[in-house]
Amino acid sequence: MDDIDRPDWRQRFRAPTYWSATIGAAGRGLVVGSVDGSSIQLCRWDVSSGRLTPVTDDRLGVGHGWLDPSGSWVFYVHDEDGSEVGHLVRVPYAGGEPEDVTPALTPYTLRGLGFSASGDRLAFNPVNADGFALYTVDLGPTMSEPHLVHRDTWETWGAQLSARGDLAACWSTARAKGLRLHTLMVFDVARGELVGELDDGRESAVRGVCFSPVDGDDRILASTTRSGFARPVIWHPRTGERLDPALSDLDGEVMPVDWSPDGTGILLCRTAGAQHLFRYDLHSGQLTELDHPPGAYLDAFGDGTRFAPDGHIVALRERAETPPEVVELDGRTGRPRRVLLPSAPAPAGRPWRSVTFPSADGTTIQAWLATPEGDGPFPTILETHGGPHYAVTEHYDPAAQCWVDSGYAWLSVNFRGSTGFGRVFAEQIWGDLGRLELDDMVAAREWLVAEGIAEPTEVFPMGASYGGYLTLFALGRRPDLWAGGLAVAADADFALSYEDATESTRAAVAAWMRGTPQERPEAYARSSALTYVSGVTAPVLAIHMRNDTRCPPRQLEEYERRMRALGKEIEVVWVDGGHQSVGPDVFVHFYELMIDFADRVLARQRATNRAAPDPAASG
After folding, report:
1. What are phi and psi of 101, to 5 degrees?
2. What is the DSSP letter of 205?
């Protein structure tokens, strides 16, 4: 079928889109996105002309990549069949064959990458059976062997280099014995010695953002949750001096984003409610609210907006109704200067509305709502995001719009565990996954019904990754509430997943569960959807990737086996690729399956209701 004949929702998936955009030296940029409407690839970007040319051609797509500061090389992880386990490679910016950066290392997952200011040195975090490590590699026409700076059995993330490349930073869970209450560690690269460690106490997490870009300035910009919310801190690891910018007029979380190229200011983003960017002047202490157009500029991982080498701001601007655009903002005022990559032509989407409602214990929960034209109640999709430490911000989401096009209301819930709402909100699920998140899902459903938006008998939980887990968990724990469930790349049993997953995923699960399956078997059973299979009454559609290392296949196979043994209704679709093998082709296939499934469930349910005798007429 030609694109012109496609229903609107498919056209949205097929429209060119951008996931991230970075500018390096000499007007060279790197865009992660889809230019052909088929897959997500890394594209070199001629900033002056706006031309995008794919650098990669992976059949499963490439969703993450880095451009070195000199604009000479593009880096990404090459894996096998989407497994996320492989080697870091580099490709000449002008094109060419990938070159393995670490041929002698055992294959690994990557948890961080950074460059020195000139791009002559690289730091990265490989994770494999040897543990969590921080390495550096000297770059050039030829590369040095990887130089080990730090290794630990405790979860360690982030790889950042000072401007000169003589200091390397990462953040560690060692002091918290695996809980994600990080300290920020800075090492002397040559000697591998710890220079300093920023520890804000056992209830706080400190994570690095970037070193000062000025040669010889060893200060690092980081975030700390010491106040209960993420806030910026600037720390000098050699002297221990710190600056906590005064931001008393701003509520909620204020994320540090980047350091200006001249070292005079830092870029901040307030994430509470509608996002807004600020610039903080390090000399005067003045906070300036930037005068930029409305929209979302930062995702839950802190990506989307950065300073360019010329001091202006390159931002990926997101809105619900139209595809993203890449804009240049004035580095001091935030006023728009020009559109670098325009929003692609695509059918307009329905607007999103931010809503709030109380959960069972009174906690305020925020969610995003989109509805079809006309009056409700509608059949409704109740979406839960992945993570769990993630958050949905306003963005152009063809997946949400395809449900609305099909006559469904759509609500995406930022449940307990989500980021952006404070330290307690994010961490109170630890050790007891599922319970509070389900309370928030139930409260969302109750709000939808009370507002006349959702038809009570036609609500479907849906999610991918952790959201897929919550879908299966909700179906078993509260079977009375749902018409059916749609789970993509779901984790049905944390203990089985722990056995099969990569070392990086095991550390994350152990942190969320406050221990391993051997240490806390009852907690793992209590939190796993597999425990509640016997309670499921609604039909289930599960879509899973054969080479997923985050939510390995065996646990989903066991969920399917038990469902069928108990006579439960389940459809499982297996596809090639791994946890993050995504892109337009994959998305279109998934949503064709899910819309068809939901429509069939509703048609059968409505036919049954029509055929049922009227109790009032029998009296």
Report:
1. -80, -30
2. -
Q: For the chain, what is the total number of helices (H) and then of strands (E)?
A: 10, 36
Best-predicted range by mean pLDDT among 35-39, 81-85, 397-401?
397-401
pLDDT at 2: 41
- How far apart CA 320 and CA 409 sit, in angstroms, is 15
How crowded is residue 380: how many other Cβ atoms within 10 Å of its Cβ?
28
Question: Who wins on pLDDT, 618 or 102?
Answer: 102
The band of 274, judged by pLDDT with boundaries at 50, 70 and 90, is confident
Task: Dump pLDDT digits (tens) for 143-163.
Answer: 999 999 999 999 999 999 999
Q: Kindly report the backbone phi and psi dihedral angles of residue 198, in degrees, each rounded to the nearest multiple of 5, phi listed first.
A: -95, 115
Instruction: Report the C-alpha gap between 271 and 23 in whole angstroms.
Output: 24
Helix (H, G, I), strand (E, B) or coil at 276: strand
In angstroms, the CA 504 to CA 128 distance is 7
Instruction: Centre a 10 Å sphere on the Cβ of residue 480 and count the other Cβ atoms it contains.
Output: 7
User: How distant, in Å, are the alpha carbons of 20, 110, 515, 578, 609 from that of 60?
Assistant: 18, 18, 34, 9, 43
Contacts of 613 (CB under 8 A, 6+ apart): none
260-284 burial, b at 16+ Cβ within 10 Å, e below that, comes to bbeebbbbbbbbbeebbbbbbebee
Query: What rounded mean pLDDT belongs to the chain?
Result: 93
Give the per-residue pLDDT at 7: 54
Burial bucket for residue 241 (CB in 10 Å: 0-12, 13-18, 19+): exposed
At residue 589, the 3 state secondary structure works out as helix
Residues 550, 490: contact at Cβ < 8 Å? no
297 near 305, Cβ under 8 Å?
yes
Global pTM value: 0.93
